[in-house]
Please model this.
Amino acid sequence: MQPDTCHIESLIIPKQSLDRRMDHLGGCRMTTMDALDKTLSDLHNKAAIEVSAIVSRNGVLIAANAPTDAKTFAAMAATMLGAAEITAEGLDQGVPDRMIVESCHGRLIVMGAGKKMLLAAMTEPDTNLGMVLAELGNTIKEIVSIVEPS
Model:
């Protein structure tokens, strides 16, 4: 690893970008990983989310507010969204905004979060989908601002 880079699993982020993304909250500087963890925590506080994960497009778990099997959850979410994107593009439907899997036990929602990440979340089956999607959209903007600054 070069001395001026920082690895987040499979992502390489220039150190200068990492330094620019440090947040000041309550007088404490936050690392990128701390900021991503806080973003998921905030999501759980605002929406009826049971499980969430920030995942690289190739399925590597970056951050999670999930049970012990978070790595499998991350890999499967990335695989499912990738398959949905390839299918939609193959049918000339463009890139999907999200993939939603519904069952009697809940919903799995997977959305792209910039070029390198995705956000996966699970909700109760009777949760207001519109409100959850709005909060997921806000969370994605926050994730992108952390990992892909302008």
The longest strand covers residues 49-56.
